[in-house]
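Task: complex structure prediction.
Instruction: return structure tokens for all chains below.
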Amino acid sequence: MQANADLNNNTPAPRKSKKRKKKVNWTLTSVMMVLAIFAILGPLYITVVIALKDPSQMTNVLSLPKQIHWENFKNAWQMTNFPKMFLNTLFITVVNVIFTIFTNSMAAYVITRYRLKNKFFNMMYYYFISAMFIPFNVIMLPLVKEVSAFHMDNIIGITFLYIVFGLPQNIFLYSGFVKEIPTALEEAAEMDGAKPMQIFFKVIFPLMKPMHATVAILSFMWTWNDFLMPLVLLSNPDQQTLQLAQYVFQGQFSTQYNLAFASYVLVLLPVLIMYVFFQKYIIAGVTSGSVK
Amino acid sequence: MVEINLKHIYKEYDGNDNYSVSDFNLDIKDKEFIVFVGPSGCGKSTTLRMIAGLEDISKGDLVMDGKVINDLAPKDRDIAMVFQNYALYPNMTVFDNMGFGLSIKKMPKDEIKKRVDNAAEILGLTDFLQRKPAALSGGQRQRVALGRAIVRDAKLFLLDEPLSNLDAKLRVDMRTQIAQLHQRLQTNMIYVTHDQVEAMTMADRIVIMNDGKIQQVGTPDELYNKPTNKFVAGFMGSPSMNFFDAELKNGRVSNGRGLDVAVPEGRLKVLREKGYDGKKLTVGIRPEDIHTEQVALEAMPDAVVSAKVEVSEFLGTDSMLYSRTGETEFVAQVNARDYHKPGEEVEMAFEMSKAHFFDDDTELTIE
Ligand SMILES: Nc1ncnc2c1ncn2[C@@H]1O[C@H](COP(=O)(O)OP(=O)(O)OP(=O)(O)O)[C@@H](O)[C@H]1O
Ligand SMILES: [Mg+2]
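Output:
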């Protein structure tokens, strides 16, 4: 849900009509902008500054570093076993996003199309949606037991769980979207001789593009940033994720802030890059979806 | 090549109390252009969708080439359909939209290209093949929808109100294009419309429906000149037929409120044989069978009423006179030379040899 909040902050409201000419209160706008910049860039500034400092300089968190300690990054890289953890996390995230898009859209499509005609599918719909209201913490401990009983306390297992745990929210998202796709399209494809799978993959799936983008970004952010599930499920040090690796800085006697922050920056970078890259798609998706 | 028989077909939608289509019986001959016509909600689309296989048949048999195909999946029926709302695939170009059915059938690429190019040529879509449907006008989309159907060698074409969203001029253009297409393709077509002009101009045979039931099946000429009941008589023709509740007495029909005209000998004989002498019945006469010319007045002296024109519409070759005699209102369609201003008193002759007579209770034509 963290990801959701970010998303709303950064995507401009798409429905703002250009025709409505209201006078812009520039003073107020500027004040708000400055506040927003401070709220977002302030902490980021502190993070970067600390990451470049020596521990002795920590008394004033806002001050610029006297000398830039690039070696913080190198140390952090080594301490967290960055390449290994990065690949682990990347694997979980990418596999999760791909499978989520294929399986969850398919499930949502079937449920949405049949739920008005068939009680079973209607029940499925409510079954999945109701799962949205169960906090993860409640099922956390039983889940740990279950997972170890099935020997799923590894990367593959957790990837599977991410795909499944995303279902409620994604079915909710996809379902609203599928409802808007006219059934006449499927009927036309059926008359054209297409089988159900062909109808889905050639006609429906491409139409869901805007929603795929949304779901992909939400799943990516969630999996990449998740700390809790890897913490309780992944015991083998070789199989841990980047977020989990940040734990090493929480030393018994002191927390190595400079290294920790350098490491945070390292973890943050891929997300930022992806985010900037995806944002274009999301904005394009939202507008093309609404104009049609 | 194909013959389609609809045998006592019924449709009841889940949750509805009565049949949306009942006892639908029709034999469609090879190469025939059939038009389903009727008011909104009469079951035209439902029947079409049952033929397509998109809707289950509740009762009865659908037979194609001698085989019952009630349970055959739509994709196996070899039927092409044009949907009322086009239903073009928004993510595909015009070319891909038209070629979709062929590529599903794994037809070689160059053959697909040949067929699509050919169809695009016929429909004037050659310049738009690489566009997406969103970048087309309504008429162009309509043609793409048609094109998607004609590239396939389907046995049967189903068209559900394909012209309803077009403007009047384009509609007339497309009407002739579809008629030409039928000539060229020589396949069965079933065409749904609620516009009786479309039905009259295009059909080999018209099936006119009301309330889920077939009212009459026949050529445009039969439906227009020999309607089997009051509904058909009223539905076909524009402006529609004038109806009067009247009584047959002494060889004349009168309603006691202004209308009183003689019935010609031949028609009178039939009415008397059927026992309508002295009884109530409904008289129907088309606007164009009411005349104001001097010759007509002289030829039918005992069927002349004097009426007051209340509204008159000049339509170029004709004019419509919305008139009243006593308390009886009717419309006359007369030659534009006989234009009369509102308020004028005009003598009008009812050409009763062309009139229709209906039973008051059953509303069936008396013949
Ligand atoms: N899916 C459905 N569920 C229940 N009833 C339906 C359904 N579709 C149609 N009907 C009913 O069946 C009857 C016939 O509908 P149909 O769509 O065949 O009419 P139509 O002749 O095509 O009308 P129009 O000219 O308005 O398209 C209507 O009374 C309608 O309410
Ligand atoms: Mg209809």
